[in-house]
Amino acid sequence: MKKKSLLVLLVAITTLSLMACNSKNESRTEEPKQETESTELVSTETTKKETVELEEETPITETFASQEITSIATEETIESESETVLSLEENKYQTIETTDLFEQIYVPYANREKSFIFEGVKSFASTLEYKIEITEPTEEDLGEIKIIDTNGDYVYFAFSPIDDVQIIMTVSYYHAETDSEVSLSNYSSDGSPRYDTFTTHILGESEIEVSNTDEQRDFLFKKELSELPNDSPTELTSEYQTDEEIGGISDKDISDLNLKFYESVQNDTTGNWRLAEISEDVNIQDYIYSYYKKYFKEDSEFHVIVNHSRKITASINPVHDALYVVEHNYIEGEKYDAKKLCSKPVVREYYIYTDTRDIKKIE
């Protein structure tokens, strides 16, 4: 009986032990599950955070990129507009033809490319075809040399003694058409180039100091397009350029006009060309006969009248018992060169008979 009770007790204890072990095992099995759930939670939170950060960063980056592109585009636009303004400013001006007197005589001396000694300038001047006036230097008078063109332009040299040698003190170029001049002056005791002074001067106004002969060239010959005559035959609007009625009698007196007459024209190889200039707004056909009687010495001569008011040139050529007249549009500066005079398209042509002074249009 006693053995049976012990056996029952032993079975009960074993059963309880097994139950306790199973309980511990179940507990151990559940713990990893909790860790996994925790890890998944942390991972999910991290992913959400990274997603939020990406969502927040992306618009900022794109905004900066967009701003940078806009900035570049704006800079390019500004540069383009600046280039346009510069282009318009450059195209606002046009350099008209300069003169041989300026380019071949004044500029080389003003740039110190030729001898500054009086005898050297005098020797050079003697080789030229221009009119030359020379004043020899004395104890009382300065040496002077003046080289004069037929149109009234001239280059003037004044000398002063430096160590008993006559050296250029000033050289200037006078432009008759604009009544203005440019000059290089040096009044120093030793004539050193560092004291050279370049100026421009409209007569009657104050002198303006400039840097070099390039600026002086612009002053004399560079004009705003709005100031220049329109020489294109397709754009001229003057009523004179339309086919104004030709006829009647050439009976007006040329002496009534303020006319400048020149006995020669540059680059004329015949010696027969003559040039005249007027500024009045008149129909030149009315004065041709009177001009012929006053200024023609021989019928072999060929005369050209420049009318600056109407921007035309009229060539006059005696043929038999008539004067053959051809009118052209005027090119700025052509009066300085026989090769360019009357080279523009013909506006009209006509005869003026010397016995009756009648004007007949040539169809």
Strand element count: 16
Taking pLDDT < 50 over at least 5 consecutive residues as the criterion, the unreliable ranges are: 24-43, 47-58, 60-65, 80-93, 225-243
Count the DSSP helices. Answer: 5
Question: Percentage of helical residues?
Answer: 25-40%
Overall pLDDT confidence: 77
Main sheet, how many strands, which sense, barrel? 7 strands, antiparallel
Query: What is the SS-derived class?
Result: alpha+beta
Q: How much of the residues is beta strand, in percent?
A: 25-35%
Q: Secondary structure elements and their pairing?
A:
Elements lengths: L1 H90 L1 E3 L4 H11 L7 H8 L5 E5 L8 E5 L5 E9 L2 E11 L4 E6 L11 E6 L5 E3 L2 H9 E3 L35 E3 L10 E6 L9 H8 L6 E6 L4 E8 L2 E8 L16 E8 L5 E3 L2
Parallel strand pairs: 11-12
Antiparallel strand pairs: 1-9, 2-3, 3-4, 4-5, 5-6, 6-7, 7-8, 10-11, 12-13, 13-14, 14-15, 15-16
Task: Characterise the protein shown here.
The chain is of the alpha+beta class and 363 residues long. It folds into three domains: 43-91; 100-225, no CATH class; 239-361, no CATH class. The chain contains five helices and 16 strands. The protein has helices at 2-91, 100-110, 118-125, 213-221, 288-295; strands at 93-95, 131-135, 144-148, 154-162, 165-175, 180-185, 197-202, 208-210, 222-224, 260-262, 273-278, 302-307, 312-319, 322-329, 346-353, 359-361. The strands form three sheets. The chain has a seven-stranded antiparallel sheet, with helices on one face. A seven-stranded mixed sheet has the order 10-11-12-13-14-15-16, with helices on one face. It has a two-stranded antiparallel ribbon with strand order 1-9. Strand 3 and strand 4 (154-162) form a beta hairpin. Residues 24-43, 47-58, 60-65, 80-93 and 225-243 have low confidence and may be disordered.
